[in-house]
């Protein structure tokens, strides 16, 4: 079970795209036409062989739009995991009585989107690819867009909520990975990274508040962010309303 993609949601997709590309030194993004059925448009960048996506509502009444209103602006949206045993993962999800809001199996690319009221804090998706190196949502030529001179890989994310213990318990049921208590909350280890669960850090309510990116020179990335006005009062890099935790590559 690997964290393969983080999705954010924002109103001004063009501005966000420019900030993300400049701060993280990313290559060309892919616009997935498949998100149009949800009333969205998007941009997806490869960071190594992990992916960062931003979605933006293009019509009223979308789930993403409601989240923007609920949380008072841009922020985290989805955590997408890749499994090597989709049948077992779906059986586990069903046994845990976790509702599925959308599911697809198409030419070797599969996803299972879970109900955020059953697995709170983000929309969790459990996906599978054949072959496993493929990533349908990054586009057919995503490898041509990989740039790792600055950012190397996404390695985790942080979910905030009123009851981190209860949240982590539901994520454990969905992902089939054990959780452990930490000084700040709870943690679930996944292949190559971790999911952290913490108490509410602000007034925006529960949600995906941060993600971790391994970068070659954290100070350089922070300088890039500062130049674009993407550093908050606490000195943290913020992209699309979401804190970016910079880890040394």
**Helix coverage percent:** 10-25%
Question: How far is the first residue's CA from the last residue's CA?
Answer: 21 Å
Query: What would the principal axes of the Cα set say about the shape?
Result: globular
Rg, nearest Å: 17 Å
Major pleated sheet: 7 strands, mixed
**Nearest-integer average pLDDT:** 97
Number of strands: 14
Beta-sheet strand percentage?
35-45%
Low-confidence stretches: none
Strand order of the largest sheet: 2-3-1-4-7-6-5
Indicate the CATH topology of the largest domain. 2,3-Dihydroxybiphenyl 1,2-Dioxygenase, domain 1
Give the helix/strand class: alpha/beta
Number of helices: 5
Query: Which CATH class of the largest domain applies here?
Result: Alpha Beta
Instruction: Tally the structural domains.
Output: 2
Label the CATH architecture of the largest domain: Roll
Q: For the record, what is the CATH homologous superfamily label of the largest domain?
A: 2,3-Dihydroxybiphenyl 1,2-Dioxygenase, domain 1
Query: What string, H for helix and E for strand, traces the elements in order?
Result: EHEEHEHEEEEHEEEEHEE
Question: How would you describe what is shown here?
Answer:
This protein has 249 residues and is an alpha/beta fold. It folds into two domains: 2-143, 2,3-Dihydroxybiphenyl 1,2-Dioxygenase, domain 1; 147-248, 2,3-Dihydroxybiphenyl 1,2-Dioxygenase, domain 1 (Roll), CATH 3.10.180.10. Helices cover 21% and strands 39% of the residues. The chain has helices spanning 13-24, 63-71, 86-95, 164-175, 218-227; strands at residues 2-9, 40-47, 50-57, 75-82, 100-106, 109-114, 123-129, 151-161, 179-181, 185-190, 193-199, 207-215, 237-239, 242-248. The strands form two sheets. A seven-stranded mixed sheet has the order 2-3-1-4-7-6-5. A seven-stranded mixed sheet has the order 9-10-11-8-12-14-13, with helices on one face. α1 (13-24) packs antiparallel against α5. The radius of gyration is 17 Å and the shape is globular.
């Amino acid at each position: 079970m690997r964290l393969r993609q983080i999705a954010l949601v924002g109103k001004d997709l063009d501005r966000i795209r420019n900030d993300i590309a400049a701060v993280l030194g990313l290559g060309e993004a892919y616009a997935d036409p498949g998100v149009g059925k949800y009333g969205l448009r998007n941009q997806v960048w490869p960071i190594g062989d992990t992916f960062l996506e931003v979605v933006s509502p293009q019509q009223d009444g979308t789930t993403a739009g409601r989240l923007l209103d609920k949380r008072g602006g841009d922020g985290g949206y989805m955590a997408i995991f890749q499994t090597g045993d989709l049948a077992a993962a779906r059986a586990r999800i069903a046994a845990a009585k976790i509702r599925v809001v959308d599911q697809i199996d198409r030419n070797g690319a599969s996803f299972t989107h879970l109900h955020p009221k059953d697995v709170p804090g983000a929309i969790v998706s459990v996906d599978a690819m054949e072959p496993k190196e493929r990533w349908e949502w990054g586009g057919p030529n995503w490898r041509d867009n990989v740039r790792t001179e600055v950012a190397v890989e996404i390695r985790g994310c942080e979910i905030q909520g009123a009851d981190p213990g209860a949240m982590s318990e539901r994520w454990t049921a969905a992902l089939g990975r054990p959780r452990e208590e930490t000084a700040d909350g709870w943690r679930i280890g996944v292949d190559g990274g971790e999911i952290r669960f913490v108490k509410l850090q602000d007034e925006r309510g529960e949600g995906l508040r941060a993600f971790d990116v391994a970068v070659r020179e954290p100070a350089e990335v922070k300088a890039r962010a500062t130049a674009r006005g993407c550093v908050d009062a606490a000195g943290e890099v913020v992209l699309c309303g979401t804190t970016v935790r910079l880890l040394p590559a």
